[in-house]
Write a structure and sequence with these properties.
The protein has about 160 residues and is mainly α. The chain has a domain of about 100 residues. About 70% of the residues lie in helices and about 0% in strands. The longest helix has about 50 residues. The chain is rod-shaped, with a radius of gyration of 24 Å.
């Protein structure tokens, strides 16, 4: 026969099970949304990067460190470095994994960082570019390191 104590114990177990299921479901949804937000941020950044004719032109020239880079407006070059710094900020904030940033933007970061003509008139050693320089160092440190199977394009 069910006594009041047994009913109380059963209700506690059921409530605990419901709470556990709710917690697990909420945690899974939180992680899924986090990945979705990171993926959306990545797609937005990649689209901005690829669809900018100015960036494409500068990047075409920076691949060979073309001397005509020095003739491109300082503001356009600043905008490109600023964009790459935004990618670095996304990595620093955890919204973009460093390995993904390396795969998609790292090569360009290195080219810009090492280009002599790109930096004409920009004072590359200025504190103003500190974030970019740190991001470039981080991208170089990941060079040659194959991503772990769960890191490759895993947002």
């Amino acid at each position: 026969m069910l006594t009041l104590d047994i009913l109380k114990d059963i209700s506690i177990v059921i409530a605990g099970a419901i709470a556990l299921i709710t917690f697990v479901t909420g945690t899974m949804e939180y992680r899924r949304r986090g990945k979705q937000e990171r993926a959306e941020t990545f797609v937005h950044m990649r689209r901005r990067f690829q669809e900018s004719p100015t960036f494409r032109h500068i990047l075409d020239l920076v691949t060979t460190d073309d001397p005509t880079l020095a003739n491109i407006s300082i503001q356009d070059r600043r905008n490109l470095v600023g964009f790459l710094e935004e990618v670095g900020l996304l990595v620093n904030s955890g919204l973009l994994k460093p390995e993904v940033a390396r795969l998609m933007f790292g090569w360009y970061v290195e080219l810009v960082d090492q280009s002599q003509h790109f930096w004409t008139g920009l004072e590359p050693d200025s504190d103003y570019w500190h974030l970019f320089r740190r991001f470039a160092e981080r991208m170089r440190s990941l060079k040659g390191r194959p991503p772990a199977p769960d890191e490759h394009m895993n947002f």
